[in-house]
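$ ./design --mode recover --in tokens.txt
reading tokens...
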């Protein structure tokens, strides 16, 4: 995974893969938990992003579970 994965489209692709759905099914303001994301899947994603040296906390993503919010948070929190 590269820094390009932190773009809105990159995140959409990564999350879609985790959810095993088509990326076109994820809108920027969809609640990702309503689309089927669970805590185990989220921890997997957090681990992937930390490998890219992004400082991200599980709880922060739970509080704002939309693609747009996550992209904004990940951009603001380099390690």
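writing sequence...
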């Amino acid at each position: 995974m590269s820094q390009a994965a932190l773009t809105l489209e990159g995140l959409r692709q990564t999350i879609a893969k985790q959810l095993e759905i088509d990326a076109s099914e994820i809108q920027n303001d969809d609640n990702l938990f309503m689309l089927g994301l669970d805590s185990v899947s989220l921890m997997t994603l957090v681990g992937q992003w930390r490998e890219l040296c992004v400082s991200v906390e599980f709880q922060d993503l739970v509080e704002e579970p939309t693609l747009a919010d996550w992209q904004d948070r990940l951009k603001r929190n380099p390690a």
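exit 0
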